Amino acid sequence: MNAPAEINYLSSLNESYWSAPADDVLVGLATSRRGLSSVDAARRLQRFGPNRISATGPTPAWRVLLRQFRSALVLILIFAAAISAIVGETQEAMIIGVIILASCGLSFSQEFVATRAMDALRRRIAQKATVLRDGTQTIVPADELVPGDLILLTAG
């Protein structure tokens, strides 16, 4: 399957796309200074799909907990606890084990709460963008942006 012409254009620029002359980019993306027409934007949305990162849903708590044990420091401590237990130093092994559990428990609780807060914010905030469509400023959901849209930026 061939890549869309708009994407081929941007990847074929000799210079970085952000430094290319605006008129060249407009021609390459088959758009104009008046923006896309609503019909063309709908066609491109159908062709390219929504402008969003595929969401995997909330991460299960058990996965967040397992991630805490992937740290190099935690793995070294687990190894040290195992060696201590093997050589008969059970008290030291238990102390290291308690340190591991306390560290991972604290990291888990912080990451779990932060992940849930981020998910809640993502659900509350409706991301919108102001674009030129049919020559007029139009507010559209951010996931309906398509290649060739002229996005109007403001401070703040």
Structure description:
This protein has helices at residues 5-12, 22-28, 38-48, 61-67, 72-86, 90-124; strands at 128-133, 136-141, 150-152. Helices cover 53% and strands 10% of the residues. A 3-stranded antiparallel beta sheet has the order 2-1-3, with no helix packed on it. It is built from 6 helices and 3 strands. Helix 4 crosses helix 6 and helix 5 (72-86) runs antiparallel to helix 6. It is mainly alpha-helical.
Distance between the ends: 41 Å
User: Structural class given helices, strands, pairing?
Assistant: mainly alpha
Strand content: 5-15%
Instruction: Give the rounded overall mean pLDDT.
Output: 85
Identify the strand order in the major beta sheet: 2-1-3
Order of helices and strands: HHHHHHEEE
How is the biggest beta sheet arranged? 3 strands, antiparallel
Q: What oligomeric arrangement do these chains adopt?
A: single chain
Q: State the shape.
A: elongated
Enumerate how many helices there are, as a single number. Answer: 6
Poorly predicted ranges (pLDDT <50, ≥5 residues)?
none
Number of strands: 3
Return Rg in Å: 26 Å
**Helix proportion of residues, in percent?**
40-55%
Question: What are the main properties of this structure?
Answer:
mainly alpha, 3-stranded antiparallel β-sheet, 3 strands, 10% strand, elongated
Quick synopsis:
With 156 residues, the protein is mainly alpha-helical. The protein has helices at residues 5-12, 22-28, 38-48, 61-67, 72-86, 90-124, and strands at residues 128-133, 136-141, 150-152.
